[in-house]
Each structure stands twice: as C-alpha cells, then as structure tokens.
Design goal:
Rossmann fold; 451 residues; transferase; alpha/beta; kinase; 4-stranded parallel beta sheet; Dehydratase_Activator_Redct; binds iron/sulfur cluster; 16 helices
C-alpha cells in the first residue's frame, strides 16, 4: 500500500461504528456531566469510563505543535496518560482492541472539527495504539448517535444522555447556589459527591428502560436536602455569570478552578449550561433543514422538498421534547431551591437584537456567549466573565463585542484566557473584578445608577 492510501486507511479509524461491549474512553469535561454521560453509555451496554484528567498535560504538549488550542492539548494528554497507565497495569495483557476513544467534533470554522483526526495521527506514532479506533458525535447532525449503537437503541440513548446532561447542569447549579452560603465548609461538595454517585448508579440501572421519573425523584431529593445547607444569615453575594468556550469554562482543571476562585473572593457564580449548547445545536439543525426545504421549493424539486419537510418535522418534535424535559428537571429543583433557570435558545437570540450585536447565522459559541451574557445582565447579574482558551477565535469575537457593550452599561466584565500557564496577576484581576461587581450591586441597590 502506498503511503497516501495508508494514511487514508488510518484516518478511517476515526469513524462511527457499533461500540457495544468495547471500553469507551471519555475525556473528562464537566465533572458531573461526563460521569452521567458515561453512566448513560453503560446503561446501554457500553462499558464507558471517564479518564483521569490533566495528569498527562506534558504529554499533550509534547505531541502538539503549539498551534492547537488548549482543549486539544488537554484531551490528548488525557488519552496518552490513560493508555500509558493501562499498559503498566495490564502488562502483556494490554490489548488495544478492547478500547475506543471518544472525541466529539463540531463543524463550522473551528479547529475542534479536526482534533480527532490530529489525535489519530498522534496515536499512530505509537505502534501499540494504532488499533485503537476513535469515535465521535458531531454537531453536524445535532449529536445523533446513529451508528454508535444498534439502531433500535440509538434514539433512546440520545434521549437518556440528554436528560443526564440536564441533570448534571442542575447538580452544578445546586452547588453554585448553595456552596457560597453553606452552614459548614465542605458540606455541599461532600453531599453532592454522594448524590452524583447515586445518580450514576440510578442512570445505569434505569436508563435503558427510560425511567425518567425515578431520575426526577432523585433530583428533587437532592435539591431538597441541599437547600437545607444554606445559612439564612449570610446575605446574598454579587452574582457573576460565566460565558465562553464550552470546554474551558466547564473543565475546572483547565480554568484553574475559576468558579471556586470567584466564590473565594465573595461572589456567587452561574456558568452557562451544557444543555444550552445542545439545544442551540438542535435549533441550528432545524434552521438548516428549513433552509433546505426553501431551496427545494424554489428549485421545484418535490422529492427533496418532501424529504426536507419530513426531517424538519422530526427535528421540531425532538427540540420540543428537549425543551419539555429540561423544564421538568428544573421545575423539580425550583420547588425547593431558587437555582438560576436556563436560557432558552430563542431568549438568547432575542438579546442579539435582530443581528445588531451578532447573528445565529454566523454560528459558533460566540452567539450563545454574547446573547447569554446580555440575558444575565437583564436578569440582574453583577458581572460577566468570559472564559476561553488562549487564541480561541469565537471567544475573541465575543470579547470584542461584549467588552464595549458592557462598559457602556457599566457592568463589570473580565476576559479570562487560559493555556495551562499560571498568570501571576490572575488572582488580583479576579479579586478586583469581584470587588467591582459588589460595588455595581450596591450602586444598583441604593438606586444611584439605573441601567
Ligand atoms: S472554539 Fe476555541 S477552543 Fe474550541 S476549537 Fe475553536 S478556537 Fe479552539
């Protein structure tokens, strides 16, 4: 085989295929979210594991050129470190064919769409890892799992995984609402760790049967107990909204635990949710289908028109189902604890002011970050932080638009780029930012400045 053919054959090892029964390796992103996704896979017969994170960062940096953005280095480090450990643990029993590496991708202008291919090339430099295939979900088909599981399971798996993602979001929101006000330091984290373990095993047990009721009941129990940890004597703190690139803002190790840092300086945080991104991707898919239908209509192509209308109808139902389930999960928590409700995609688009600030047509996370930040300001938040990997294109756009807008409104705003290095002035920047947020809140409360 000539070299080019060999390269193409190897890249085929980035593909979708039935992963049932193989050990699916998930790089950790949001702590609760990745665990619940793994539990959903296990419920459907895929022994998924969440890899230890951030231990292999030096490996990730060694095998990249420096032109990639930070999430690529972190995830590459995670897989190389995991495989190294497995080789040591299993010795001659190490069999690469047992594993499948899971690395989702996105379409659009971002480098993220190429990272699983790049990581394939890196894995191929190790002869013993060449037979480990890489599989993915893609934004292109709104994270459809078709091909990853047998057809009769795929649709149901996606639904369970979606609900698991929403539950992980509300677990996070419970922590962020309770921890800054807890009666005894550490009680929230300790309890939520136990709750997360209980939720993982529940998803594994009832996921395939889609017993959403059982999951909702557990969510409600957790919220009820956690609400009791709030010390009513502690006054409400300035509320900070985090927007930005999805991996960096949800991966505590990569963002040097920015949520806790802000809490340490006296703020209460709400980070943008994972479901917001999934809903956005689903919403964009529906728009694409509508565009296809309009095109087929203009071309008078009846067959294409029928097909486009049919797929659009299916997607519309799916999107409505997601919105309904998300409301259900939040409603159970809101009975006991006033966590921040999530933004709907329509609401976010409304804050883009008819395309004056940004447009969904351009896509990328910038649309969500700009709209989401403005929605937070409207909801009375006292500061916005934009968290992103150094050189991230959509987040740089977001910063260019948000900074002057929020300056005009006098809302404190902070850019927080990360690339794995520790910046000596970060602590001071965060402390000053929370101080400004407190001043902004006090001015509002005293009615000195109306926005
Ligand atoms: S969104 Fe940002 S971090 Fe993600 S691939 Fe694109 S440039 Fe990199």
């Amino acid at each position: 085989m000539d070299e080019r053919k060999m390269d193409t054959a190897r890249l085929r090892l980035v593909q979708r295929f039935d992963v049932t029964g193989r050990v699916l390796l998930l790089p950790r992103m949001t702590p609760f979210g990745t665990r619940f996704l793994a539990a959903s896979f296990r419920a459907f017969g895929v022994p998924a594991v969440v890899m230890e994170t951030y231990k292999g960062l030096s490996l990730g940096k060694e095998y990249t050129s420096g032109k990639e953005c930070f999430p690529c280095q972190v995830t590459l480090g995670d897989i190389l470190h995991f495989l190294q450990q497995e080789k040591v643990r299993l010795g001659p029993g190490f069999d690469p064919r047992r594993y499948v590496y899971f690395l989702p991708e996105s379409d659009g202008p971002c480098r993220f769409g190429m990272y699983n291919k790049l990581q394939r090339l890196v894995l191929d430099t190790f002869p013993e890892y060449r037979d480990i295939p890489i599989t993915y979900l893609s934004t292109q088909d709104a994270y459809s799992v078709a091909g990853l599981l047998p057809a009769e399971k795929a649709r149901y798996f996606r639904r369970v995984a979606y609900v698991a993602a929403v539950i992980a979001d509300v677990f996070d929101r419970i922590v962020w609402r309770v921890r800054p006000y807890e009666l005894r330091e550490g009680m929230t984290d300790g309890f939520m760790e136990e709750a997360a373990r209980a939720m993982e095993s529940l998803i594994e047990r009832v996921g395939e049967a889609r017993d959403f009721q059982a999951m909702l009941d557990l969510v409600e129990d957790v919220a009820k107990t956690a609400a009791g940890f709030v010390d009513p004597r502690i006054p409400r703190k300035p509320r900070i909204g985090i927007v930005g690139e999805i991996y960096l803002r949800t991966h505590p190790e990569s963002n040097q635990d920015i949520v806790r840092e802000i809490e340490r300086h006296g703020g209460e945080v709400v980070d943008a949710s994972i479901a917001e991104w999934i809903n956005f991707v689903s919403h964009e898919r529906l728009r694409k289908m509508k565009r296809n239908a309009a095109l087929a209509f203009r071309r008078k192509d009846r067959r294409a028109l029928r097909q486009a209308l049919k797929t659009a109808a299916v997607q519309r139902v799916e999107n409505a189902w997601q919105a309904w389930r998300q409301r259900q999960v939040y409603a159970r928590v809101l009975r006991h604890l006033d966590i921040q409700p999530d933004h709907s995609v329509r609401e976010i688009e409304k804050f883009l002011d008819g395309g004056r600030h940004f447009s969904f047509e351009i896509g990328t996370e910038a649309a969500l970050s700009i709209g989401g930040a403005l929605a937070h300001v409207h909801e009375g938040f006292h500061g916005i932080v934009n968290v992103f990997p150094f050189t991230c294109m959509p987040s740089t756009i977001c910063s260019a638009i948000l900074k002057p807008l929020l300056l005009q409104k006098r809302v404190p705003y902070l850019d927080a780029p990360y690339d794995g290095t520790v910046q000596p002035n970060r602590e001071v920047a965060l402390r000053t930012f929370v101080y400004q947020a407190r001043q902004y809140r006090d001015r509002q409360q005293n009615g000195k400045r109306r926005i």
